[in-house]
Amino acid sequence: MKILCNPLFFLFLGVCLLFLFRVFFIRTGLIYVTKRCWRRVVDCFHVHQFYRVPEFNENMQENRLYCKVSDYLHSLASLEDSDFTNLFTGKKPNDIVLRLDPNQVIDDDFLGAKVSWINEKIGGDKSHLRSFVLKMRKTDKRRILRPYLQHIHTISDELKQRNGDLKLYMNPGGEDHNERWRSVSFTHPSTFETIAMESDLKNKLISDLESFLKAKQYYHRLGRVWKRNYLLYGPSGTGKSSFVSAMAKFLNYDVYDIDLSRVVDDSDMKLLLLKTTTKSVIVIEDLDRFLIKKSTAVSLSGILNFMDGILNSCCAEERILVFTMNCKDNIDPAILRPGRIDVHIHFPLCDFAAFKTLASNYLGVKDHKLFPQVEEMFLNGATLSPAEIGELMIANRNSPSRALKSVITALQTGVEWRRSASFGRRLLDGSGTRVSPEESDNNSAIFSAENVDTTKDFRKLYGLLRLKNKKSQSFDLSSGQKYL
Ligand SMILES: Nc1ncnc2c1ncn2[C@@H]1O[C@H](COP(=O)(O)OP(=O)(O)OP(=O)(O)O)[C@@H](O)[C@H]1O
Ligand SMILES: [Mg+2]
């Protein structure tokens, strides 16, 4: 009984009880319920302000801020405290990425103020419309709103820069107007370093892109839309698509790849454009094929309007438009006039300088005793596309000598191949460009631009070459052609 009168006993009992409470609260998770209730109580004494960041604006264009907020929130450690998150595999095989489930709340602190975000799905479960809603105390609003939004911009830009997280958007076509663009991560490995191209030209193009990036005020002063149109033209397998990737990576822009065969009409094309975002490279590949064969539902004036930027003036700016073609000879001059195309870039077949870049990139060889022989062959007019040479080098990457020998054989073969092809009709123009389908349709299917990709032909040829090499060192082109 005496012990009950001892204050130390009560102190000890109190500590024990507190400890047990704590263990009980943490073990059972009641701590979270308590925290939440406490927060609700505190919230009752504050007036809040809400800001919605919808995924699309009233023109149904993607809201860039939504993407930035999404990137920012998904980088927060407090994402793990959210009640419901989805788990996905990341870029690396063992990476696990957390994604907020709809209608979940995520908390954040900024300059001592507490804010929360709700990942809302507008219009029920079947809806595609999403938004983030920011909730902050009115008393904090004036102090933190602007710096907080600026902070989100900065962090999301840094994240994008660090992760190289670019997106490739494709138009799937079809009826679903909410899904004009479908995106995947843009992982094309080409950069300006890996592209074999005359170094002066490459440097000029890089500085052209750099000066475009700095020219916002200049374009606005002239009353022009801040955009630049490039035409990349040259034979198949010379690096046009790879160059687009290099541009996008250099600029850190997303890529919108418009498949003209899936565009239903001119207004569909307009809507596609309206739904592209600023800081993007918009690409139309093989424009010559669509124009010559008229295999797209988009009219010439639809394409011209797009190139002029009349439509773009009502959309976001800071964008690059790129058109690729195999040959621009038969193209309506209206398409190519200055203003519609700002920069024309020719992608030729390989010369010796480009070959050396490829040898260095693919084989790690800067010099070799077979180089003079290869150089002589180029000087004598032999040539292949960089894609063709790249294929041979990849196939023989373990033995540079074998790779170079196979390139020499292929160069010889290529000369004979092209010579034999030119007996009947001219199939290649001066720069090695394939002629149009109309010009070549009486010739063998091998050279028909619409059916045959030179690279694929060459792979078949090369497959044959390897088979034959096992039996004998010589390669009979005429017999090879029978198999093509
Ligand atoms: N100039 C080059 N430098 C380095 N690699 C190249 C070059 N040209 C082509 N290649 C390689 O060849 C392959 C095909 O190139 P790419 O797709 O860029 O050619 P393309 O000109 O777009 O052809 P197409 O007209 O058929 O679309 C790629 O894997 C690329 O790495
Ligand atoms: Mg291409």
UniProtKB/TrEMBL annotation:
User: What are the BP-aspect GO terms?
Assistant: response to stress
GO molecular function term, any single one:
ATP binding
The UniProt family comment states: Belongs to the AAA ATPase family. BCS1 subfamily.
Instruction: Classify the source by domain of life.
Output: Eukaryota
Q: Which InterPro entries match?
A: AAA+_ATPase (IPR003593), AAA_N_dom (IPR025753), At3g28540-like_C (IPR058017), ATPase_AAA_core (IPR003959), Mitochondrial_chaperone_BCS1 (IPR050747), P-loop_NTPase (IPR027417)
Catalysed reactions, semicolon-separated: ATP + H2O = ADP + phosphate + H(+)
Q: Which cofactor does it need?
A: Mg(2+)
Q: Does the keyword Magnesium apply?
A: yes
Presence of keyword tRNA processing:
no
- Tell me which residues make up the AAA+ ATPase domain: 226-351
Bilayer-spanning residue ranges: none
Keyword annotations for this protein, in alphabetical order, are: Hydrolase, Magnesium
| Name recorded for this polypeptide | AAA+ ATPase domain-containing protein
